[in-house]
Design goal:
By secondary structure, the protein is mostly helical. It has helices at about 10-15, 20-50, 55-65, 70-85. It is about 80% helix and about 0% strand.
Length: about 90
């Protein structure tokens, strides 16, 4: 069953109810970071849709953010491993 994404207020309530739990605080920091990435992605799509002049700035910022993501690094490593095995 898919749940709707948590709102900012719901995340704050979770944080406030778990101030002493370091694991929850760590997860919430990561969620905050991922929400920022989603915001940059949306901004980029809006810029492209509007044929804005500064799409390169937003695109580069988004690529830099995505390049730091663990899942992206893991995917790149798997691709490299696959490519090496193909040779």
């Amino acid at each position: 069953m898919n749940r709707p994404p948590l709102t900012r207020d719901e995340l704050i309530a979770i944080r406030d109810g778990n101030l002493r739990n370091a694991d929850i605080r760590t997860l919430l920091r990561d969620i905050r970071r991922l929400r920022a990435v989603a915001s940059y992605a949306r901004q980029y799509v809006q810029c492209v849709d509007q044929h804005a002049q500064n799409t390169d700035v937003v695109r580069i910022a988004l690529l830099n953010l995505l390049g730091d993501e663990a899942c992206i690094k893991e995917m790149d490593a798997l691709k490299e491993e696959f490519n090496r095995s193909e040779k």
